[in-house]
Every structure is written in structure tokens, then in C-alpha cells.
Specification:
Blueprint lengths: L1 H15 L22 E5 L21 E18 L2 E6 L12 E2 L10 E12 L2 E8 L7 E2 L2 E2 L4 E5 L10 E14 L17 E6 L2
Antiparallel strand pairs: 1-2, 2-10, 3-11, 4-5, 5-6, 5-8, 5-10, 6-7, 6-9
Keywords: Signal
Protein name: DUF1120 domain-containing protein
Length: 207
């Protein structure tokens, strides 16, 4: 859309001023950097929350039902101390039955949103010191205290005395709590076994 509008505007200007001189070239600049520093990130238990089977009769008729709470540790080891952001990706987009920043767990065969899971940050340690989890909604320009990993937000850590700025980290540990909810029973058509199929990716941004 932007490219089309620029071409349309240029055509209009040429028609309105046929004798004006126009540049015969334009520049495209690509900037960035390749850093030798890198971080390895991992989740305990292979990042798997195995809930097993649940009966539809265990679900609340109308409210979301918490069916599982799992503690899980996230660890990150970097080759050197650096600023970072964690960016979560919901690999089941459009299936979360809760708020927009929750992660989906798939659809029923009738295309109903089955439920969602939430990722809470219980405690964070950076280079052996307790730190505060923080979040950003604008790609890292501003930061606030945030004890959840939220879809559409970026996460990092700050000193406990100042939540507005990230700190350099080499080794990070986050104690997470994964809460899985299923939507109200009356909103779902479950006449056969339906898989709970949530999947999220947490990637490291070096900026």
C-alpha cells in the first residue's frame, strides 16, 4: 500500500509540473550489525506441559476452568553480558479463548476456541542477583514492571530499584508458572476426544 501510494503521488506531480526537473535516482540504505555475542535459551522438561486427559464434566458450564498449573524454569546463557529482550510468538494464533495477550491451545472440530495458557514470571535471577521482570509494548522503547510473558509484548529484566530500564545480563534464570485454562463447557461442542494443542516460541532479541 505505501509503495503504491508513493508511485501514485509521483505521477500526479509529474503531470502537474511537466517542466520540473526530477531526480533520476534514489537511494536505498540497509543498516544493522552482526554481533559475535549470542545467547542459548532453554526451558526445563523440554518446554513440555503434559496435562494428560481431562473430563468435560470437570469444566465449569460458563467460566474458564483452570485445569493445570506447572512450574517451569527458563534459563539463558550468553557469551557475554548484554541487553536483551524475550519475544514470545503464539504458534496457535487466533485460538485463545481469553484475553488477547494469552496463548491459544487450538480449536475444537467445530472451530470453537478451546482455551488458553498464561505464562507468569514468579522470580528472576540475573548473574546470581534477584532482578525485576519488566515488559514493553513498543519494541523496547519504554519499560514497566510486568510479571508475565505476554503475547505482543517483549520481556526483559531490570534492577529491583528501577523498573524503567533494562540491565546487561550474561546468565538469566526465570521461574515460570504455566496456567492452562479451558473455556466454559457450554461454549464447546465436545462429542469426541479433543487435543489440547498449545505451542509458543520464546526468542531472544539482541537489542
Amino acid at each position: 500500500m505505501k509503495k503504491y501510494f508513493a508511485a501514485l503521488s509521483t505521477t500526479a506531480l509529474i503531470c502537474a509540473a511537466p517542466h520540473a526537473l526530477a531526480a533520476s535516482h534514489t537511494d536505498l540504505t540497509v543498516k544493522g550489525s552482526i554481533t559475535p555475542a549470542a545467547c542459548d535459551i532453554s526451558l526445563a522438561s523440554g518446554g513440555i506441559v503434559d496435562i494428560g486427559k481431562k473430563s468435560v464434566n470437570d469444566l465449569h458450564p460458563t467460566d474458564n476452568t483452570l485445569i493445570n498449573t506447572t512450574a517451569m524454569q527458563l534459563t539463558m546463557a550468553c557469551s557475554e553480558s548484554m541487553l536483551f529482550m524475550l519475544n514470545p510468538i503464539d504458534n496457535r494464533p487466533g485460538t485463545a479463548a481469553g484475553l488477547g495477550d494469552y496463548f491459544g491451545v487450538g480449536l475444537t472440530p467445530s472451530d470453537q476456541k478451546l482455551g488458553f495458557f498464561d505464562i507468569k514470571i514468579k522470580e528472576s535471577t540475573a548473574d546470581t542477583s534477584l532482578v525485576q521482570a519488566i515488559g514493553s509494548t513498543d519494541g523496547g522503547t519504554t519499560w514497566v514492571k510486568q510479571d508475565r510473558i505476554m503475547k505482543g509484548n517483549q520481556s526483559s529484566v531490570a534492577a529491583t530499584s528501577d523498573h524503567s530500564a533494562r540491565i546487561d545480563v550474561k546468565d538469566l534464570t526465570m521461574d515460570l508458572e504455566i496456567n492452562t485454562y479451558i473455556a466454559g463447557r457450554d461454549s464447546l461442542t465436545i462429542d469426541r476426544e479433543v487435543p489440547i494443542d498449545g505451542l509458543a516460541t520464546i526468542e531472544v532479541w539482541y537489542k
